[in-house]
Amino acid sequence: MELQRLRTVFRTALELPEDAEVESLEYRGIERWDSLAHMSLVAAIEDDFGVMLDTDEVIDLSSFDRARQILEKHGVVLTD
Amino acid sequence: MNSLLHPDAGLVDAATGRRLVGADLAARVADLAALLDAEPPGLVFATAATEIDAVLRLLAVWQANRPVALLDPQITPAVLGDLVDRFRPALLLNHPTPVDGFRPAAAGLGTAWRALAPDGGPLHPDLGLLLNTSGSTGNPKLVRLSRSAMHANAAAIATALGLDGDEVAPTTLPLHYAYGLSVLTSHLHVGATVLLERGGLTSRDFWTAAGRYGVTSLAAVPYQYEMLRRLRFAPARHPRLRTLTQAGGRLHPDLVADFHGRMAEVGGRFFVMYGQTEATARMTVLPADRLPEKLGSVGLPVPGGALSIRAEDGAETTTPDRVGEIVYRGPNVMMGYAETDADLARPDELGGVLATGDLGRLDADGFLFVTGRIKRIAKVFGVRVNLDDVERSLGHHGPVAAVAGADRLVVVVEGDDDPDRLARIRAEAASALGTHASGVQVRGVDALPLTPSGKPDYRVLEAQC
């Protein structure tokens, strides 16, 4: 599956421009990624990739890379 | 004598692990109070982040019998400047940067600032706390609360929730927010421990600290219950955590039933509560064991409080199922509002009676059901308009808030400020109300001001009308 899809999910959930760089973002590192946006992001990832995250995964989903790793655990492998 | 601080009370700082309990805590607070005594007399402004030094200074202010206005740690310089101009504080505590007209206060008080020329007026001797009813945004009015109101409400909440010295409560809400502050005061009052934590429910640090320090309860507002659901909160994983409380607005009955079920399954308790800053914090608590039969109720008055319903003709009643304005009586009712420092000398103007501005009814057992808000009614050309209905009908335009202007409806929409878009919304709102477009004003904003519980801050919006 394409990594671009995860980038799009991040941009939509965090209300960022279409060309925004998301790989370097960290939870609470920018104003847009606050606890409310985090919940939208988690919901969007679950919906888009058809996975169900557990408590630890929701809390640990603190960067783009972590999101990618967590999805991999659920059998969703993303590549460019 | 500081009856807020029980001899066994404790504070733990989650970030540093620093812990102060009992006599050590009392001694530290007394030392800081002595430093405060040496500062010029007058009103204190304090922000209180949920970390131990800031909270120790706050407790010291009360120990020193000085009134304090508690402010949002994220307050903007403009809002702070306006408040300083109007309320003339003698001392600013926990403020990281210098402020015009102030110089550093005594070493030992942290980043504290003393007025170069203290010029505040006299303060009423009962005054203990000033709270803003809105979030980080400016608001013309502060709520004046007496020391005895704070103590009464802390004790009443502790009794209603059955708190004792074994409780460990984390800070899940800001301390300048009445509900958040009440968690601190009600637990310190019974000799319990308060865990000062900054990360919040969605941070790894929070849950690590909650486990390490054996947190026994969580206080949360509706949007945090949405988070807890998303986090798949399972009390079985937290064997010490057996109490949840909810306030800060209406929680959907499905979520009330859901969280009651999760807690009941492990022998825990879920409390729905109702309050206002104007009543220090809490007015009612729904006993957890009555929740299933009283789903949708906010419960019974806290000890020392009483409820009645005021009909449109002004007559008060406790007859079941009459809908009217909720009137609360109790020792925790505010002294009044303050707009400038001159108001800080004023005595109690309410006599313990608070007309809440909320609509509700009592059932045959005296349980309160909140049904709406009176002040969410505007008059447009003399005709009553339900502001919540207006918001719902315009919701497809994005985040929108409707407030009452002077005999007109004011609609504030987030997003594009394009005049054509605003004109379309105005025409649509007027047509839905069957009124002329001149009765509706539409404004665009980048972001609606929100209260700490995430609701549109109507008081701020009204003040801008």
Compile the SSE list and pairings.
The complex is a heterodimer of chains A (80) and B (465).
Chain A (H helix, E strand, L loop, with lengths): L2 H11 L21 H15 L5 H6 L3 H10 L7
Chain B lengths: L9 E4 L5 E3 H16 L6 E4 L4 H12 L4 E4 L5 H11 L3 E3 L8 E3 L8 E3 L11 E6 L9 E5 H15 L6 E3 L7 H12 L3 E4 L7 H9 L4 E4 L1 H9 L12 E4 L6 H13 L3 E7 L6 E5 L13 E2 L4 E5 L5 E2 L6 E6 L6 E3 L14 E10 L5 E6 L3 E4 L2 E4 H8 L5 E5 L4 E6 L4 H15 L6 E6 L12 H6 L2
Parallel strand pairs in B: 1-11, 3-4, 3-5, 4-8, 10-11, 12-13, 13-14, 26-27
Antiparallel strand pairs in B: 1-2, 5-7, 6-7, 8-9, 9-20, 14-15, 15-16, 17-18, 17-19, 19-21, 21-22, 23-24, 25-26
Report what the structure shows.
The complex is a heterodimer of chains A (80) and B (465). By secondary structure, chain A is an all-alpha fold. Chain A has one domain (3-73): ACP-like (Non-ribosomal Peptide Synthetase Peptidyl Carrier Protein, Chain A, Orthogonal Bundle). Chain A has helices at residues 3-13, 35-49, 55-60, 64-73. The model of chain A has no long low-confidence stretch (mean pLDDT 90). Chain B is of the alpha/beta class. In chain B, the strands form six sheets. Chain B has an eight-stranded mixed β-sheet with strand order 6-7-5-3-4-8-9-20. In chain B, helix 1 crosses helix 2 (52-63). The longest helix of chain B has 16 residues, at 22-37. The model of chain B has no long low-confidence stretch (mean pLDDT 92). The chains are: A mainly alpha (80), B alpha/beta (465). The interface between A and B is medium-sized, with 13 and 16 residues.
